[in-house]
Structures are given as C-alpha cells and as structure tokens.
Write a structure and sequence with these properties.
GO terms for molecular function: acetyl-CoA C-acyltransferase activity. This is Thiolase family protein. InterPro entries: Thiolase, Thiolase-like, Thiolase_C_2. Residues 234-373 form the Thiolase C-terminal domain. It is a single chain. By secondary structure, this protein is of the alpha/beta class. The chain has a single domain, classed as Thiolase/Chalcone synthase (Peroxisomal Thiolase, Chain A, domain 1, 3-Layer(aba) Sandwich), CATH 3.40.47.10. Helices cover 35% and strands 18% of the residues. It is built from 13 helices and eleven strands. A hairpin with a 2-residue loop joins β5 (191-193) and β6 (196-197). The longest helix has 16 residues, at 23-38. The protein starts with a strand and ends with a strand.
C-alpha cells in the first residue's frame, strides 16, 4: 500500500481557549477547512472517522457529527485509542479505500478540555489511587523515574526536547504558547510530579483538526494541488496497566514503527523531520529510541550532534507539538507533517522529503506511526 493513499487536505481551528464551542462545532469547522484545502465538494466525502472527545464521551458521536454536517457516509464511526486514535483512523481510512469500501474519507478530532471538563486527565486510575497515584502525569512520572534509574539522568534530553518545541512554537502564529524557553527557565520550572517539571508537560487545549484521505489515483484525476503520499503506517497496543508491566521503559512504539518502516521501505536514517507525540518529554525520548534513531539510553548523543531544532540532527515537532502548539491529542502533528512535505511550515526543514509522525494514547498503552513522503 506504499503511496497508494494520500492526504489531500488539512484543516484546523484556533487552539487554546475557544469558549462557547461544542466539539461538534469545532469538528465541523476543521472538516470544512480540510475539504476546502483539498479543493473538493463536501458531497465527494463518503466516509467519516472521528475520535471520541476525551472531555465528554457521547454515544453515537459519529452519527451526530455526520447529521450536523449533512453527510451520509457509507463507511465510518468513532474510534478510541486515546491519542493514538488519529493515525490509526488514517490507516483505517486508507485500508477502506484500498478495499473499495469508500472513496474519500474525512478523519477528524475535536475536544474542549480547557473550557470544558478536564476530568479525563485528572481522574484516578484504579485502586492505586488509594496509595496516592492519581492523574495521568503521575503514571508518566513513574515511567520517567524508572528510565532515569536504568539509563541515567534525563534532564539534558528532556530540556532539549522542550526547548526545541517552544522555539518552533514561537515561530508558529497559530500556536497556543509562543514563549521561547531557555535552559535556565526550564531548570527553574516547578515540579508537577518529580521528575517531570511543568515544561515537560503538554498544554491543555480546546481545538480541532481534520484531514481528507483519498487514493493517489483519485487525487490525480481530481487534480488535487498538493497531495501528500502515505508511505507507511503501523500500530501497537498493550493491555497492561502501568504497575503490572514487566518493564516500564519498553512500549509498543518499536513494533508500531517496525511495521510502518517496512511498509514504507525506509529506515530511521531516511527520515528528515519528525513529529513525535509529546504529551510529556519522556514520551519523545522513549519513542525516538524505540523507533531506532539511537540505541536505548543514548538519545543524549543527539544534543551533541545538533539537537532537535531546525538545522539540527533531527528537527522535531516543528509547529511546536503538544508542548507549545496545542495540547490536543495528536492530529495536529499529522497536519504539520503534511505542511513539511508541502514545504509550507513556519519552521520548514530545507529539502525535507520524508517525515515520521507518532501518536500515543493512555499512559503509553497505545501507539500508532505514520510515514509521509513526496
């Protein structure tokens, strides 16, 4: 399936505080912009896949959105792998198109935890709350603590990841947080749950994003102006709760990337730019190592070889990522990957031809990988 499907259009809303807007309203705005970007009519869309909103779960949400958009999709529904949902939905859309189940698919995500409910992020996780483990950040902090115990101090790497994201976000007029970060500022950032500081943690954001997926052949016939080929995708999932995992420093990211690289016929050395799910900086660190960019415990070598900013060894999260552009879970990273392949990013990597994007859900429970090309 390498290159058989393309992302033909992208759209988004404003990010940050978007008061008075329902997730249906936000989804509709992003979808309308994605369809317009593709240069097609709404009537051409015959599939709709949407991530369930985290802030407020609703039954038959996909049908509610389709009704509001006056669509009658013959394929679609709601998907939930947490933050890994978006790339997985794009993969499902590509496979459905290849199987003849649909021709043009909209994939969309909207949420409003900043002005709505944050309960999904703050809730307790099982009986472990009786011992003080409450909220998502506590789970990631436990993983980060174990990683540091096994492989050494992670402050330099986490700081470099956060500083790069904030630099790129500052150059992005659509970013929620446009404040550059220095190492001194990072070191002075207060602990949220040690060893994770405030600047290691993603934003809480309202917003929506959407993409249009179709076959490369259809894109040619329709004269789509800037289709971006989907070269590979993969996913991996674990059902184990964090306290039950045999190794807290190993996730399914490696298996997900292995599948995507095999489909694309590429290796880590072929990647020019990366959009890596950065709900927390430890997630980026572990993902890049699992993807094979460096041996486990050696990502700090990247700092000595140029780091993660544009012009460095591996430009990372060039629109600001979840740490600076928007904390919404993941589809915005795909949009930035598309912009990099089109050459239209606000922090464009010169000559970039291949981009890898990661999505992750839960507390490193789910993972999905996408490789885009030209």
């Amino acid at each position: 399936m390498r290159g058989k499907a393309v992302i033909a259009g992208i759209g988004q809303t404003a990010f940050g505080k978007v008061p008075g807007r329902s997730t249906i309203s936000l989804n509709i705005e992003a979808c309308r912009k994605a369809v317009a970007d593709a240069g097609i009519e709404k009537g051409a869309v015959d599939a709709l896949l949407v991530k369930v909103p985290t802030s407020r779960v609703e039954m038959m949400y996909g049908q509610t959105l389709a009704e509001a958009m006056q669509l009658r999709p013959r394929f679609g529904g709601v998907f939930d792998q947490g933050g890994a949902s978006n790339i997985s939905m794009i993969a499902i859309a590509a496979m459905a198109i290849e199987a003849g189940q649909c021709e043009v698919a909209l994939v969309s995500l909207a949420d409003n935890p900043r002005t709505g409910s944050r309960h999904a992020y703050e809730k307790v996780w099982g009986d472990d709350a009786d011992f003080g483990w409450s909220s998502v950040v506590a789970g990631y902090a436990m993983i980060a603590r174990r990683y540091a115990h096994d492989y050494g101090n992670i402050d330099d790497v986490n700081a470099a990841i956060a500083i790069a994201a904030r630099k790129h976000g500052a150059a992005n007029p659509n970013a929620q947080l446009k404040l550059p970060l220095t190492r001194d500022m990072y070191d002075q950032s207060p602990w949220v749950v040690e060893p994770l500081r405030r600047d290691d943690c993603c934003l809480v954001s309202d917003g929506a994003a959407a993409v249009v997926v179709m076959s490369a052949e259809r894109a040619r016939k329709l004269g789509i102006k800037a289709p971006v080929p989907i070269l590979g995708f993969g996913q991996g999932n674990t059902s184990d709760a964090v306290p039950l995992r045999e190794d807290l420093t190993t996730t399914m990211a490696g298996g997900s990337a292995k599948t995507a690289f095999a489909m694309a016929g590429l290796k880590p050395k072929d990647i020019d730019v990366a959009q890596i799910y950065d709900c927390f900086t430890i997630t980026v660190l572990m993902t890049l190592e699992a993807y094979g960019f460096t041996p486990k415990g050696r990502l700090r070598d990247f700092i000595e070889e140029g780091g993660f900013e544009v012009g460095g060894k591996l430009p990372l999260n060039t629109s600001g990522g979840l740490l600076s552009e928007t904390g919404m879970p993941g589809l915005q990273l795909v949009l930035e990957g598309v912009r990099q392949m089109r050459g239209t990013s606000t922090s464009q990597v010169p000559g970039a031809r291949n981009c890898i994007v990661s999505n992750q859900g839960g507390i490193m429970h789910t993972h999905s990988t996408l490789i885009l090309g030209q």
